[in-house]
Batch of 2 targets.
Target 1
Amino acid sequence: MKQIVVSGIRSTGHLHLGNYYGALRNFIQMQNDFECYFFIADYHSLTTHPDPKDLHPNVRSILAEYLASGLDPEKSSIYIQSDVPEVCEIFTLLNMHAYIGELERTASFKDKIRKQPENVNAGLLTYPVLMAADILQHKANLVPVGKDQLQHLEMTRKYARRFNTIYGAELFPEPDAYKFHGEPIKIPGLDGSGKMGKSEGNCIYLNDEDKVLTKKVMRAVTDQGPTEMNQQKPEVIENLFTLMKVVSTPDTVEHFNDLYNKCEIRYGDMKKQLAEDILKVTAPIRERYKEIVNDDEYLRRVAAIGAEKARESSAKTLREMREIMGFKKF
Ligand code: AMP
Ligand code: TRP
């Protein structure tokens, strides 16, 4: 039987290189070999209380970026999370077996408490349960996500196992993280911080114009340069190389690595090359995005077809859950 793949990205604005390499690029490669459901997590985006007037434009731009990057609605179900309301009922049912203690211990929740102490809402606490509902509603086997989501996925596995055990059913497979090149990936920020992320404000967006993008890369934090042959690289420099390994050819990486080891590297040259190689990836996506983003009819059609397929799959799982849990019609 075909393996089932589910993944999503929150609709909090434009997609950045972390989203692309951690998630979207894998979606594109997987759609040829698996039964795929790729959605835009608009419910999940509500935890930070976006302005209602931004909600739909944010969904629209991500949908257009999915399509511009090569997600194919003929191959995958591409849908908006809130177009499949069955997920909310599945979420309710799963919540009964999700314990407050384990939710409070989740790293992302603890992180949010630190970052937004004025808005520690229940949606943040139960975020991993809604994510489990997203995944389990389609009985996924594989979930392509970046490193930061692995704990959430572990919780999904736990909820799947728990449901099966409590009800003596074999309803849910335990989904695995899908790692395309062996290890889960983490795209660093170019400001010397660990991770590229929206809330870190250090993103290179798929949609950045050439000049903006080049400027961001040229401003990447570096150091004074190596002082000893073959010395270990400090984190900021390692980050630059990590990004280069993702976007540039192995020859290019080796070239700059050799220069580094010989203490002859000029970071300006390296950054210039890096910016060029990032643009090779992002510029075509940006061009296609411009053609798609205002094509209401096309976007409407894609979202409608995607939602129909996703709803069918979700409704079936929901029916099975209800039956297993003892719901009956009069
Ligand atoms: P988010 O934007 O937090 O909804 O993330 C959507 C997807 O992108 C998830 O699969 C994340 O793991 C992935 N992602 C976000 N930032 C990064 C990053 N810096 N490196 C790798 N993957 C990332
Ligand atoms: N939590 C994910 C993130 O922030 C987004 C997401 C929501 C997701 N539901 C999902 C990812 C289901 C994979 C599967 O990146």
Target 2
Amino acid sequence: MSLGIPQTVAIIMDGNGRWAKAKGLPRTAGHKQGANNVRDIALACNELGIKKLILYAFSTENWKRPEDEVGFLCKLPGIFFNMFIKELMEKNIRVTFAGELNRFPQDTQDVINKAVGMTEKNTGLELCLAINYGSRRELLLGIQKYADQVAKGERTNDITEEEVANYLMVPEDIDLMIRTSGEQRISNYLLWQIAYAELIFTPVAWPDFDQKELNRCIQEYQNRDRRFGGLTS
Ligand code: IPE
Ligand code: IPE
Ligand code: MG
């Protein structure tokens, strides 16, 4: 029996730079094209009835890149939401984010917070952008918060696996994790949440990852046998 549509999908949107280089364009052109593709894939996921799409847009390690590229990437979410917020509203898509926004320029933070506020009551797809996100940082902040609460006597030291989610930026388990552009690694993304995710690595670069390739990945997911440590019935 094949699986239904995955409820939570996480994508590592990789390969923008190589896509641009192959076309003789600057890396930033790849990021721009990649941002346009976020719109297309979010709309497609909304149509498919996926509940939450989490897109890795900027990692805590991406600050290591040259200053001009980092500067461009920091402005991109702001540009994206200014361009597409109206359409996201029309399609009933809710915007959220994971990561520490405070390192981004104030105007970018303002646009993101505005998008989150405006779409708060929408009931379609939850489009979550992981920006300045790193899973180890997420876990560290959660551990610190928990330790603080225990130290202050606000709770006892008896946390369960289910409760760990309350201390994370992304509380859901991931059903399907896709990484584009051929790299086969996780790069500090959702380490707790992908415990039993199905992983798909596609050679297609993110700017070329279209609805057809998304559908192919979903089909591949649906043909997987998710056993969660048990046996197939
Ligand atoms: C993904 O594309 C976008 C970010 C990491 C911000 P890359 O910029 O990593 O592109 P490649 O991997 O160098 O081709
Ligand atoms: C992962 O891609 C981060 C994002 C897609 C935002 P990277 O290109 O930064 O990852 P590595 O360096 O190849 O592992
Ligand atoms: Mg990369």
